Amino acid sequence: MEMRKPTLLLVFLCTLLLTGCVQVGTGTYCLRLGMQGQGTVEPNAVLTYAEPTLVSVSAVPEPGWSFVRWDGPVADPFAPETTVFVERDTTVQAIFAEDSAVEIALPPGGMIPRPQRPGGTADIEYIMLHAISDAAANPANPYEMDRIAAIFWEYGVEAHYVIDRSGTAYQFVRDDSTARHAGRGSWAKDPRLTNNMNRYALGIEILGIGTEGEMAGVIGAQANSRISEGDRGFTDEQYAALNGLLSLLTSRYHIPADRIISHEEYDPGRKWDPGDLFEWERIRLQ
Ligand SMILES: [Zn+2]
Prior knowledge:
The chain has two domains: 21-98, no CATH class; 104-282, Lysozyme-like (3-Layer(aba) Sandwich), CATH 3.40.80. It has helices at residues 6-16, 145-155, 197-200, 212-219, 221-225, 236-253, 263-266, and strands at residues 29-36, 39-42, 47-49, 53-61, 65-71, 81-86, 90-98, 103-105, 126-132, 161-163, 168-171, 201-207, 260-262. It is built from seven helices and 13 strands. It is α/β, with parallel strands linked by helices.
């Protein structure tokens, strides 16, 4: 029986079936690019190669959108221009997030009333990033916003914003008021900031849990061992929301990128957050 022409058939199928590559025969490789959100990807057609091939790919967001990452086997998932080594039928997606996608919600129990900053919003010079969870008490279910609110009210600590795992930002304290999130520490050899960062900073808590090592001194060994690995670190939705919130706050209060700092930097040794699992390269610093 005569063989059909597998390569031609493959090209036809790849072009026609945008749901994925169909391999017919061997020795031919298909690359398909897709996206979530709004932007353009190059190359924007399904391509076939006769042998394993290194292919350059790029992602450009539409205005009002930002590139977040690639989904698929690219060389650098966080670089908008990178490469894919096509050694099998390969699908790669660019993820774009809408800049204004952050939704700011009222927290359970309402906002927490706090004293005004002495200089009002003119005092806002820094943004401090934190991580928080209820892992000490509820290691199997550490991200209930009701519990986070209860911790704030019970312990007399709070941050201006808390970003939950699905990317909703809850505002607990007005921007023009001080929140108790920074505690003791020092920064940039500026004596005004020593043990006094709460006056000058907005605090953002991201619901998240650090590495087992980071949490060892924080939540106790038994709770630490009961945390599921998927609950450590931070979610894509949180990075998208954080980018939206940061662009809002940095433009509103004219805060430069080098004034977005971690709690750990302010109080090294005593504080760990947001920790080694927080990917700084995923927040867009102007
Ligand atoms: Zn903190």
